Amino acid sequence: MITFVSYASVDPVVISEELINTAINEQITPEIAEIAKKEGIDPEEVKAIRLDYKNILKINNLWSLKNLTKLQLDNNIIEKIENINFLVNLTWLDLSFNNITVIEGLNELVNLTDLSLFNNRISKIENMDELTKLTVFSIGNNNLSSLENILYLTRFENLRVLNAAGNKICNDKNYKAYILANLKNLKYLDYRLINQEEVEKSRAIYLDDLIALEEEEKITKSKKEKLEQRRKLEQLFEEAHIKNIDMLFQDMFEQDPDFHKLNILAPEKIQDLNEDYRAKFEIIIIEMKDFILKKHSEVQEEKELITKAIEDAKAETDSKGIKLVNDLEHRKKAFIRTVSNMRDVKEIDEAVKAMKFDVDETSNELMALEMTIVEQFEEILREYEKNLQELFNSMLECGQTNMARIRELENNYFERYTECIMSAYDRIHKSDMDSIENDDLRELISDKEIILNSLNATHDFHLLKFDQQEDGLSSGCNKELEDEIQRTHNEETQRNRKRVIEIITYVERLYYEIDQAEDNIF
Hints:
Blueprint: E1 13-14, H1 17-26, H2 30-39, E2 48-50, E3 56-58, E4 70-72, E5 92-94, E6 114-116, E7 136-138, H3 148-152, E8 161-163, H4 175-182, E9 188-189, E10 192-193, H5 196-205, H6 207-239, H7 248-254, H8 257-263, H9 267-339, H10 345-430, H11 439-445, H12 448-519
Parallel strand pairs: 1-3, 2-4, 4-5, 5-6, 6-7, 7-8, 8-9
Antiparallel strand pairs: 9-10
Helix pairs in contact: 4-5, 8-12, 9-10, 9-12, 10-12
């Protein structure tokens, strides 16, 4: 039996900062409770939270818990799944015993493996396409009435545990056989281990349907793979600053209203012209695209090399610095042991001065090491900037050269296109105008000025598309170069400041320990 919380008996609760903090504090172990009380808890460090039995009506204000992997919201009065799309690290989500009617707002949670929607008001399994890692799914005690809901679950290849008990579909005599036949990787159904013998019998019953379904799945999978390949290619083009490069020819005609207007004058001849234009156009685009993608790949390699070069340089100086610090720590400990047994004030004063001098000398050596690495980094970054500049310049030069070739192609095409259009105009204009049945064609032929204006407009539109493509490459390369140089310099500046502060802080601590050792004598 499905049960729901009554609004008449409870007051709805809002997820507030206080409620979240209370929930976090309730789950803290005694071992860290005192530390948490003094220092507080960073919400970003919270991996799991229980917000069950709180009479929550609306999901909200969870933005500070962006690193959650486990979220428990069961036994509330929630009506809608919302405001959790940013919790992309979630692997476990419990929304059981609520008043939810529609599955929604989950597609961003791509790492979800365990989902419970048990005991809600859901009548359809939907809107979960991106949850490809789903392993455990509980949808029992809802309003599912059609076995077709089970077909939706066939997309989840990792699904091993399903609970659908308590739905109307369970009354269907074919319920179990239908599920076992269609969800071939399932291990547990409605809390019971699945028998492999039952699976084979069930698949035999639905063999014809399964063959058809598997064929459909193959087609769907193939389409999905092609879409994913296309998405990755488009992303690569965008990263290389040649967005839509392979669609340039198609777009400049499809998006050109004047071309479509003039096309009715001589569609077959224009098609022949366009095919010839496309063949020459695509040769240039392929050459340009291949070269720029190659240089883009080299840019990524340079970024990896600079990271390794910096890490190697840091590792070398860090090892020297660590040795200096360790040696100094040994001498400091020896000083503290020795000075604690001294009683002569002059002798103590000389020992303290000698130790502080040792600290200052080591500090100078550490600072000298830091200056060395700063100089090394400056040289590395200069070389890096030079290499990047050369790569981006070659990309821009390639773009300029090939776009100039394309503009020349366009000019040649435009001459032939204009000749074709005007020839068609002269031929049709000399014919019997009353015999023309197409109203758009009759209107076009009636005014030669319209045709001339449209010809110029279509040529200008094509040139504009080329300008935009070239500008995209130019601005993209320049911005990436500027941002990358700025990033590396900023990171080096921050690293240098941090290291200098570390050295100063370390020296201050040593001075304090030396003074304390001296004070403890008297």
